[in-house]
Amino acid sequence: TDHVALGNEEWNPWEADEKNELAASQQRYEANLKKIKYARSHLEQTSLRVQIWGKAAIGLYLWQHIFGGHLEPGDVTAQWREGSQKAGKTYFSFLTGPSVVPGYFSVAAEHVVLVLNGREAAKAAYAAQWLRYAQTLLESRKIRHVAVVLLGNERCHNAWIEPYLRRNGGFVNLLFVTYDYASVNEEDIFQWPLGVATYRNFPVVEPSWSMLHDPRSYLCNFLGTVYKNSSRETLIEILKQDGLDKLCWIAAREQWQPQETNASLKNYQDALLQSDLTLCPVGINTECYRIYEACSYGSLPVIEDVMTPGDCGNSSMYHSAPLQLLKTMGAPFIFIKNWKELPAILEKEKKMSLQEKIQRRKKLLEWYRNFKAWMRQKFINTLENSFLPNDKG
C-alpha cells in the first residue's frame, strides 16, 4: 500500500471504515483550523503593549479598583509588585513598589504610562526625574509613547508639567489629571478621579447582601479633621445644635493624621458601613477620597458643592466645577451649597423606609461600578486612539 499515490482516489480497500474516520478527521481539522484562526486574530487584536509604572498611590486605584487587576505578591509592603491583564487591543503590565527605580527594571513595552504624584513641589521634583528618564528612553528609541496619570495639586497648580506635554513641544502624548484642572480639553488632557486612599490601604470592597439589605445604625457619619474657621466647624456646630450628632457617627479631630492604623481603618470602614449618608465637607479641594470610599460601601455622599480657592475651575469642555467629572457621569449624590441644609436632609432620612434605602444603595453601588467600568474603557480607548494610528507610520 505504500506506493499508492495520495492523489489516487480510485483505489481504497478500506472504504467502508474510512468514511466515518474521514468525517471525524475532517471535523478535527476544521476545529484545529478554527483554533489557529482564533489564536491568530487574538494576536492581531493585541496590537499594543503598555507598561504602567506606578510611582504614586493613585496607581493602585487605577490598577486594582478601575482595572480590577491583581498584584503579586499580595503583601502591600512588598518592595516590588506586578500584575498584567489584556484589555481591548492592549496587553497591560503594571509595576509598583519602592524597588521600581529608573534604570533598575526591564522596560518591557514600547508604550509607557507613568503614574506620578505632583501634589506639592518636592513630589513634583521627584516626578520630573521619572519624566527625564522616560525622555532618555524615547530618545534612544527604547520606547515610543508616554502618557501620564498625575495626582494633581489640590489647588490645580500643575504648571510644572505643561512643558512636558507634546502640545508644548514636549514628549508626553496624554495627561490624565485629578481635580478640576482648567486645562482639561478631552483631546490630550483628561480629568481623572481621585479615587480611594490607597496610600492608607483602603481595600477593594465587594458589595455583599448585608451591605445592601441590613438596616444601618446611623443616619450619617463624619470622621475627619476639623480645621479652624472652616465649613467643617460649621458642620459640627449644626449637628450639635439639633442633637443630630446623636444620630450620626461623628469623630472629629483637630490635627490631620496621615498614618492609618489597622484599628483606625477598621473604625472608619465600620462608620461607612453603618451609616446611610457620608458627609463630605470641602477640604483644600472639594473632591476627596471620602466620596469614593463612601460609594464603595453604599453610603450616599452628601457633598458640599462649593469651589475652593486656587486655580481649579471650569475647563473649555466642562462648566459644572467643582466635581465636573462626577457630575458629568451623573453621580447620584446629594449636593448642597451650605451645611444649613443638612437638618432638613436628615429629617427626610428619618422618614425613609428601609426598602427605599435599599433601592438607593443598589442605585449607588451600580452607578459606582459603571463609573469605574466607564473610566477603564475611556482610558483604554484614549491610549489606543493615540498610540495605535501613529504605529502605522
Automatic annotation (TrEMBL):
Signal peptide: none annotated. GO terms for molecular function: ribitol beta-1,4-xylosyltransferase activity. It comes from Cisticola juncidis. Residues 50-193 form the RXYLT1 N-terminal domain. Keywords: Transferase. Residues 199-388 form the RXYLT1 C-terminal domain. PANTHER family: RIBITOL-5-PHOSPHATE XYLOSYLTRANSFERASE 1. InterPro entries: RXYLT1-like, RXYLT1_C, RXYLT1_N. It holds the Pfam family RXYLT1_N. One of its GO terms (cellular component) is Golgi apparatus. This is RXLT1 xylosyltransferase. One of its GO terms (biological process) is protein O-linked glycosylation via mannose.
